[in-house]
Structures are given as structure tokens and as C-alpha cells.
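Hi U.,

Before I forget, here's the chain from the pilot set. I'm dumping it here mostly so it's searchable later in email.
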Amino acid sequence: MDRICYYSVMARVARIDGEELFGASRWAALNSRADWRGIALVLHAWLVIIAALTVAVLVPHPIIIVLAIMVIGSRQLGLSILMHDAAHGLLLRNTTWNDRVGQWLCAYPVGLDLRAYRAYHLKHHQFAQQDEDPDLVLSAPFPVSRASFARKIVRDLTGLTFLKLRVLPLLLACIGRHKLRAPDIALVAYNAVFAVVAFALDAGWVW
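Structure:
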């Protein structure tokens, strides 16, 4: 059903002739998909996360810990970007494995849902910068004042954004005011496994 939705929406999206814009050979290279590249990018993100955690455990200096947090955050963003590519069917050539890898190794670990994102994001491409574009809520307020921009930075750097988007839904679910979604449950499951491993290695503070 997701793949049917993808192709039906993309068929209605206004397109630029890629060959005309880039040339046939360049466009073919840009439009190509390679399974090894998609797998390598996903593995790279996870290996960098594991390496940063390992260094932080072995050398628990405050500067090292801050750097590890920054590196891990960048690779979590990387997983989100790879989920974006999977939403376009560009991560792996096999559509079934494209969706499985994009969902379980890219989307769920950062609290996202490939299927929900695909429906939302393809609508953005279909109606880019038009009234029906769901991303207008993100782009329309800009440019913002310096004070507003500073508040956004503070919320992100202090973790308030994470608490609002990831922790608050879990707390509301506990009191029956929010229905847990698949990515919420998956995020809890991933964290549970991580916590068990961290405490088993006597490094629970990392979790």
C-alpha cells in the first residue's frame, strides 16, 4: 500500500526533465541506486555512534563526552536523512528491503515513522510552497527575529525539543491522554535494549 501511494503521488508531481537540466550521462549517475552504497551509509552511521559511545566510556572526560554527544547527534540526523531517501525509494533497489531498512534502522531508532513521513513528505513535493504544502508550517514563519532564533537554539541544545517531541507523548500516554504510536513503542524498545547493554557493561551513565 505504501509503495502504491508513493508511485501514485509521484506520478502527479510536476517534474523537471532531469536529462535536459544535467545531461543524459550526468542524470543517469545522479538517478542511479546502489544497494552497497545504501547499506554502507546505514552501517557508517551506526558504527560512528557505537565508536563515539565507546570512546566516551573509555575516556569519560567532560570534553570527550560533549564531543561524543555532538557526533552521535550528527549521525542521528544522518539516520533521519537516510529515512528521507528511503521514503523516496532511493535507499535500496528492492522496495521491500528499502522500507524495512529505512523503518527499522533509520526511522524507528530516532522516533520517526517511515510510512507516516512518506505520506507527509510526498505531499510536500506535490504542493511545494503552495497552500496545500504541509511544510509551510515550518518555512512560513521565517525569517524570524533574532530573539526567536535564539530561543530555538536554546531549546535544541538543552534537550527541551527532545522532551517535547519524544518524552512528553510517553508521559501523556501513561495517564491516558495520548495513544502510543509505533515509533513511540519502538523508541522505548530501542532504549530498553541500550539501557540493558549499558548497565551490563557497568556504563549505565552513558544511557
